Amino acid sequence: MNRRTMMLRSTALAVLASLSLSATAAMAEETLKIGFVGVTSGPAAAWGTSNVRSMQTLAAMLNEKGGVEIGGTTYKIEIVTFDDQKDPKRAIAGMEQMAQQGIHYVVGPNVDDGAAAVRPVAEANNIIYVPYAFPKELYTAPAENAILGMVASYQSGPAIYKYLKDNKGVTKVAFVAANESDPLSQRDSGVEAAKALGLEVTSSDVTYQVDTTDFTPVLLPVLKTQPDLLVLSGVAPAAAPQMIRSARDLGYTGLISTETAQDAKVIEEGAGEAANGFISVGGASTPEIASDYMKEFVAKYTEMFGEYNDESNTKVYALEYILDTLKADPKGISDIAAFKTAMETFAAPNPYMKGDAQMTYVGTTSFGQKRQLSVPLVVNEYKDGAFQTLFVATVD
Amino acid sequence: MEQIIVNGLFLGASYALIALGLTLIFSLMNVLNFAHGQMYVIGGFITYTVVAQFHLPFLVGLLASAVALAALGAFAERFLFAPVIRRSKREESTMLLAAGIAFFLDAVTLLVFGEKQRGIPKIVGGVFNWDFRIVMPYDRILIGALAVALIGAFILFMRQSRTGRAMRALAQDRMAAELMGVDVERYSMIGFALGAMLAGLVGGLLVSIVGVNLGMGGPTSIKAFMMIMIGGAGVISGAIAGGFILGMLESVGLSLLAAYGDITYLVIFASLMIFLAFRPQGLMGKPWG
């Protein structure tokens, strides 16, 4: 055997050895797929995009640290995404796609009709899903696979109205909502909550097309009723600044609020100073309450996507809850019954907030069972380009 | 009532400008440009970027939108629509192409400009208030006036300039225009560029009033198609009339029908169906094409 043949054989052996080594490493490294079915295109794209990007950011952070250890096995987290375009039919197709890939945990959909539509698919295929939708029947027995991912409007609304009644002297409230299931149901629960507090509802009939861009004619009849508080029920991030600006242009000087999460930059660009005093529900990134881990998350998100979205303050929790609950009972990886059992007693420190806040499953008061993530109810006030925390509350 | 009329006029002026671009492209090439709304959105995002990110004056933003969209329109005509028209006699080929371009532009917009709603500061502060009978922010008045001025400039251009006359000849009879020495390919490209430029200009104008976001493209196209259905497809005066009629219907409906829920567009669509059953060519269109 000449020297050249020896070298060739040695090289071939080295290549084979390295290939077999990497194959062994690949076999040792497990991947845990978590799904996302939500809206990432169209007027409501901001909701789903901030949702999926929160998941991708957290997955990247965890993967960079070597992955997540669950039951002695280290998993890399892979986020499998599906844009349902806010269409229930597509949401069903998305959930079916998740089932075909053997995924047991899905975040989304973002809206009521999508969340209701995917329920049979999720239940038939042993999928736990975390919608951002408020219909109680999704979370009330016999339904048991959906876990509400945020604070519902019927939970945050009463707290906000009570605060404004006690602290700002609000007595008259007007509601305006887009002509869609989510905003309309949020408006109805808001009207109910306001009346229960003894507030006078001056207007609640006015609705608008979801693609409306000029809100002056929409708001004109509402503001003629001279409310102290104008509630933009379920307002999309795209519409909120325009509605605030139109209301102020029409001479309205009262308070404006919503029970949906908003982005400070979007508000600043779209409404500027006119939005000062605007009240919305947020998450955990205001300086008063954000932990160092939350700051790390915001920095990573900004690095990955160029710009942070304040809506992610509430969307950051779903993946964290899923992974931590799986850590509590690793059997949940393939058995959602074990996951459901673990939910009953699950408790872990909330890494996104300063202090001793806990992550637990709640919802017993609203749904009769623990089918809600305990996301802090952070009520923010917009002021000169940033949110300031008005008050923080918890929900059960 | 005064307020309703003023709101309608503002909406009408901006709508008419959107419809003009669409009807121009249709009249010249018989192409239903489903991507017109997406072009409007890109125009808005370009003005936003120039004004809010680069801190340049609003007029520079408008100019950038106009130039960029004109270039996009010319490119789309020369490299996409013209070859398809040459190779396919079926009208649906260009419709499918336009729909494909709309989806493509949506995806590009998401990648380049992101998912967030964007807006720029008011270009003029203050609100005109006539005893609360008419309340109109000055920036709306200015944008409305600019839209009307642009419509006027467009009409003048089409009537007085050599290019405008060539495009009108092309719209009236393509073959006759070609026989008379009109460079059909060149003016088709200029017409498409002009139509896209108008979409970009309205997007740039309105970003200061209503902002812009990724999802505005589809609904904008639908409204533009409604306007040219009302006024008559391919007729410039029809597009203007359609824009003002739709703006006024929207304003009146949102004010007078508010008590009955969100039925304004239901009523508009129902009225449009009845209207088209009796006059399918629209107000100013010709029944023979």
Automatic annotation (TrEMBL), chain A:
Any Gene Ontology biological process: amino acid transport
Residues in the signal sequence: 1-28
Transmembrane listed as a keyword: no
InterPro entries: BCAA_transport, Leu-bd, Leu_Ile_Val-bd, Peripla_BP_I
Sorted UniProt keywords: Amino-acid transport, Signal, Transport
Family designation: Belongs to the leucine-binding protein family.
Record protein name field: Amino acid/amide ABC transporter substrate-binding protein (HAAT family)
Organism expressing this protein natively: Rhodobacter viridis
Automatic annotation (TrEMBL), chain B:
Keyword Cell inner membrane annotated: no
One of the GO BP terms on file: amino acid transport
Topology in the lipid bilayer: Multi-pass membrane protein
A Pfam family this chain is assigned to: BPD_transp_2
Primary localisation category: membrane
GO terms of molecular function: transmembrane transporter activity
Domain of life: Bacteria
GO cellular component: plasma membrane
Family matches, as InterPro entries: ABC_transp_permease (IPR001851), BCAA_transport_permease (IPR052157)
Keywords, sorted A to Z: Amino-acid transport, Cell membrane, Membrane, Transmembrane, Transmembrane helix, Transport
Parts of the chain that traverse the membrane: 12-32, 39-56, 62-81, 93-113, 141-158, 189-212, 224-249, 256-278
Keyword Glycoprotein carried by entry: no
Compartments in which it is found: Cell membrane
Family note: Belongs to the binding-protein-dependent transport system permease family. LivHM subfamily.
Protein name: Amino acid/amide ABC transporter membrane protein 1 (HAAT family)
Organism for this UniProt entry: Rhodobacter viridis
